[in-house]
Design a protein that fits this description.
Length: 416
């Protein structure tokens, strides 16, 4: 038995012969890897994966440095590694039709996992069942390849994970029986706040979700749908939820609000891809803080409650944000300090002087000549001189006046 316990055990978990072999081996490998010839591994190590783009969606890369047990800080997945190697993984869509044919439904995200160096021998998938409620008894793992699926019984189920041994790259995800007894699960209440520029109105989207969703992907999907309009409000999200039970959301806000719908059922098997709000709180005025309470319909006990602090509304200026003005600065002008200008009449470009068709007809103020107005800074004005006869300038009024007159031709001056 001791010699047998040193061998690497790789099973499909669905073969009776393999399970018999596993049951024999288990007694000799307590607290040791089931699929390594190395000495007992170190305790669980957390890692933050590299995030890269795969077909417009986030995917994850883990470059494992050695044998051991490693947990992803984003997805909650745990990999038991035989040695160093690269692991690529991402969430993919469930084919519910394929599951329904076997009387199953999703109980967690479906992960596509690829490890080119074949260094992963065991996978721990996070689940949301409450062990004491019996929900774990109906869990299994769907092993999806192309359009085929097989259901693997867990090697072990802990309070947080379903553990299986794996032999190749493909997709794995928790499933449960469609006719399983209904029992509470670990859930989350996520709040996404959406404000409107230059308005007092806003919306708080309330999502009821299973605990084993990938929160980063919930945010990613909400952003894909709504852009940067929403903000995730940090609050304690943990609660227990029961499938198909109806819930009511309430608040201590006294007026100027509306909650829609008034009651809503929790449908967890629809919550691993779409991430639509279960409730929406419509606020008609600016609210800084309030309390939210979630109850099962007809119950007086709180399933969840939280104090919510909303971010301050964004103030939009007509010409962008206003820069702060020092206290000792001169009085601010709407568009900067006033600059004195002098208007000067000049002939329009490319305009030839008009030729008289016959004897010049004297106009009261000379013939109309197209002009352009040009603003130029006013020069320093000398002290005013005693009034005298006004001298007519050929191309504009005499300083210091700012009266605009058209240009007067010299031949017309002689007629005057």
């Amino acid at each position: 038995m001791e010699e047998e316990s040193q061998d690497c055990v790789r099973v499909s978990d669905s073969s009776p012969e393999a399970m018999e072999e596993l049951s024999i081996t288990e007694c000799g490998v307590v607290d040791q890897s089931l699929c390594t010839t190395h000495p007992p591994m170190r305790s669980l190590e957390n890692f933050e994966p590299e995030i890269y783009n795969h077909e417009g969606k986030g995917a994850y890369r883990f470059q494992c440095p050695s044998a051991g047990l490693f947990q992803c800080s984003i997805t909650g997945l745990v990999f038991r590694m035989e040695g160093e190697g690269e692991v690529l993984y991402r969430t993919v869509h469930w084919d519910r039709r394929l599951l329904a044919q076997s009387g199953k439904r999703p109980a967690g995200p479906l992960f596509n996992i690829d490890y080119p160096q074949k260094s992963v021998c065991q996978l721990h998938l996070p689940h949301c069942q409450i062990h004491s409620e019996g929900g774990c008894d109906f869990l299994s793992v769907a092993h999806v390849t192309d359009d085929k699926v097989e259901f693997l019984p867990p090697h072990e189920t802990t309070d947080t994970h379903v553990i299986i041994n794996i032999t190749g790259s493909s997709a794995y995800g928790d499933v449960t029986d469609d006719d399983a007894a209904i029992s509470p699960i670990h859930g989350l209440v996520l709040l996404f706040y959406q404000s409107f520029f230059s308005e007092e109105r806003s919306i708080l989207n309330v999502l009821l979700l299973p605990r084993n969703v990938v929160i980063r992907e919930v945010q990613e999907e909400r952003k894909r749908r709504n852009g940067d309009k929403e903000t995730l409000i940090e609050t304690n999200p943990h609660c227990s939820l029961t499938l198909k039970k109806a819930y009511i959301l309430s608040t201590d806000i006294t007026d100027g609000y509306r909650i829609n719908p008034t009651t809503a059922a929790f449908m967890d098997f629809q919550s691993y891809e779409n991430y639509f709000p279960t409730f929406q709180l419509f606020l008609l005025t600016v609210v800084k803080e309030f309390e939210l309470v979630l109850k099962e319909n007809g119950s007086t006990e709180n399933e969840w409650n939280g104090l919510v602090w909303l971010p301050a509304p964004v103030q939009v200026q007509p010409h962008g944000p206003v820069a702060p003005v020092p206290a000792d600065a001169a009085q601010a002008q709407p568009h900067g300090p006033a600059v004195p200008i002098q208007l000067q009449a000049v002939p329009a470009p490319h305009q030839p002087a008009p030729q008289p068709a016959g004897p010049a007809q004297v106009q009261p103020h000379g013939p109309a000549v197209p002009i352009q107005l040009q603003a130029v800074p006013a020069p320093h004005q000398p002290a005013p001189q005693p009034a005298g006869p006004t001298q007519v300038q050929p191309h504009g009024p005499a300083a210091p006046t700012a009266v605009v007159r058209p240009s007067v031709r010299e031949d017309e001056l002689e007629l005057r």
